[in-house]
């Protein structure tokens, strides 16, 4: 089957989007794209250090901002206006793993949010939920925001110490497919990413086909 692009978003900042993006890129043999980068080090550099698939490549960001803050704040501080119409899919024949900035409703400007990039590009979403006290609420709020905008969601990736009760109630209310659980690791390296990529492939076979 033909592979599709995937937009990786999350319930908040530091939820594990970058590691999840590396895992999916490894599984798909995809290119990676961070349309809006705020702050250093660049997430693209982290992903490039973790993915070992020979087909992998990094596509340049549409906006690369230095200030580590919400994109709308970084852009304002640097005299830049983020315009949604300037965020267009880079030229590549490979599937794209597109990593958002922060959570679903992080603002790009005074009109648009990060999730509007996925809508503009007509790309389905994988939601990353890191498990902590309060994550049920944040995950279900993200679900409601995605549902209200009719954003297609391929499934959810959990990140952190297992919490079966939290995971169960999230899956019950969202109806999402659980694609992966990233456990706390003493070291995240290429071998670790390859291991999770194989697990992702098995769980998401109907999404990515044979590779």
TrEMBL record:
GO terms for biological process: biotin biosynthetic process. Mg(2+) binds at residues 18, 45, 99. Homodimer. One of its GO terms (cellular component) is cytosol. GO terms for molecular function: ATP binding; dethiobiotin synthase activity; magnesium ion binding. NCBIfam families: bioD (TIGR00347). It catalyses: (7R,8S)-8-amino-7-(carboxyamino)nonanoate + ATP = (4R,5S)-dethiobiotin + ADP + phosphate + H(+); (7R,8S)-7,8-diammoniononanoate + CO2 + ATP = (4R,5S)-dethiobiotin + ADP + phosphate + 3 H(+). It holds the Pfam family AAA_26. This is ATP-dependent dethiobiotin synthetase BioD. Belongs to the dethiobiotin synthetase family. Catalyzes a mechanistically unusual reaction, the ATP-dependent insertion of CO2 between the N7 and N8 nitrogen atoms of 7,8-diaminopelargonic acid (DAPA, also called 7,8-diammoniononanoate) to form a ureido ring. Substrate binds at residue 38. The active site is at 34. It is found in: Cytoplasm. It comes from the Bacteria. Coiled coil: none annotated. Its cofactor is Mg(2+). The lineage of its organism: Bacteria, Pseudomonadati, Bacteroidota, Cytophagia, Cytophagales. Pathway: Cofactor biosynthesis; biotin biosynthesis; biotin from 7,8-diaminononanoate: step 1/2. ATP binds at residues 14-19, 45, 99-102, 184-186. Its EC number is 6.3.3.3. Keywords: ATP-binding, Biotin biosynthesis, Cytoplasm, Ligase, Magnesium, Metal-binding, Nucleotide-binding. InterPro entries: DTB_synth_BioD, P-loop_NTPase.
């Amino acid at each position: 089957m033909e592979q599709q692009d995937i937009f990786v978003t999350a319930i908040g900042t530091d939820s594990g989007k970058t590691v999840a993006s590396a895992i999916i890129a490894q599984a798909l043999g995809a290119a990676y794209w961070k349309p809006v980068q705020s702050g250093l080090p660049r997430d693209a550099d982290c992903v490039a250090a973790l993915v070992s698939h020979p087909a992998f490549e990094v596509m340049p960001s549409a906006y690369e901002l230095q200030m580590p803050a919400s994109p709308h704040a970084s852009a304002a501080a640097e005299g830049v206006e983020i315009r949604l119409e300037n965020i267009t899919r880079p030229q590549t024949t490979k599937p794209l793993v597109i990593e958002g900035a922060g959570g679903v409703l992080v603002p790009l400007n005074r009109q648009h949010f990060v999730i509007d990039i996925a809508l503009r590009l007509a790309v389905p979403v994988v939601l990353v939920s890191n498990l902590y006290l309060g994550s049920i609420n944040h995950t279900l709020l993200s679900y409601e925001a995605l549902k209200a905008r009719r954003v297609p969601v391929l499934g959810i990736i959990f990140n952190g110490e297992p919490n079966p009760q939290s995971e169960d109630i999230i899956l019950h209310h969202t109806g999402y497919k659980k694609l992966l659980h990233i456990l706390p690791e003493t070291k995240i390296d290429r071998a670790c990413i390859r291991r999770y990529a194989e697990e992702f492939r098995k769980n998401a076979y109907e999404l990515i086909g044979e590779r």
